[in-house]
């Protein structure tokens, strides 16, 4: 849907827009919140449990993703000719539960043991309601096999590469940055990258620049807090709206590959993997 207010500065349209961080791994540190008329006010959510726990990393965060990503994408994300309007209540609740478990697994309960950073960023509208979200995760990318590994596989590879060293060498890598571990110990075609995923904005808030702001904040955190000089993402090649957004924000195509993606099985109330053409994009962060 085209916006009628495309050229109006974002700050005028959503004056009290907030971006919040939650689910941070222990190695992450924050710059103090920024306060500027033209910029959203930022708040690390681990210092603010009201937002951290009540907004994304909880069942209503899962509801937001189910409602606004899985069931409200212009792309058909339901299997076959299933329609969001026809989902039985029990399947809908099941989807939310599955989504919540996924959030907990990726961003929540392993927090203190996590080796690779993972975090969520939320955007609130002026009524303090969730308007959008995005997640960041460090994973291993293999440029030869054109693969972005899952977070759990990536963590296993990184951990194993250090564990297989002798005690003296292991000590040398004890506090090393993941990039250095990956570059030194993994095969030359593999490296650690930060990936942006789960970007979604509620349908009523779209085309107001919220996704662009979320990406901007994700880029800032990637550079300043996580210490990486580039941000990667995977987008389904058929998702024209998202690809246009990323191109506009300065992301370039790195490679294309067929990869497993999820689809909603509305009858079963869960998700299944299918293979889809995907595009890996990257933005260098100066
Ligand atoms: C894709 C999505 C995140 C965009 O969110 P948004 O807040 O509406 O995006 P923005 O307002 O920041 O858009 C910035 C620019 O991206 C491009 N863009 C965004 N949505 C677009 C659309 N539907 N069609 C074409 N271009 C689009 C435009 O260039 C836009 O600038 P403009 O409004 O000045 O023309 C949102 O539509 C969404 O949640 N979609 C469903 C989930 C999804 O596909 N996520 C991406 C997963 S990789």
TrEMBL record:
<dbReference type="Pfam" id="PF00583">
    <property type="entry name" value="Acetyltransf_1"/>
</dbReference>
<keyword id="KW-0808">Transferase</keyword>
<feature type="signal peptide">
    <location>
        <begin position="1"/>
        <end position="30"/>
    </location>
</feature>
<protein>
    <recommendedName>
        <fullName>N-acetyltransferase domain-containing protein</fullName>
    </recommendedName>
</protein>
<dbReference type="InterPro" id="IPR016181">
    <property type="entry name" value="Acyl_CoA_acyltransferase"/>
</dbReference>
<dbReference type="GO" id="GO:0008080">
    <property type="term" value="F:N-acetyltransferase activity"/>
</dbReference>
<feature type="domain" description="N-acetyltransferase">
    <location>
        <begin position="136"/>
        <end position="286"/>
    </location>
</feature>
<keyword id="KW-0732">Signal</keyword>
<dbReference type="InterPro" id="IPR050769">
    <property type="entry name" value="NAT_camello-type"/>
</dbReference>
<dbReference type="InterPro" id="IPR000182">
    <property type="entry name" value="GNAT_dom"/>
</dbReference>
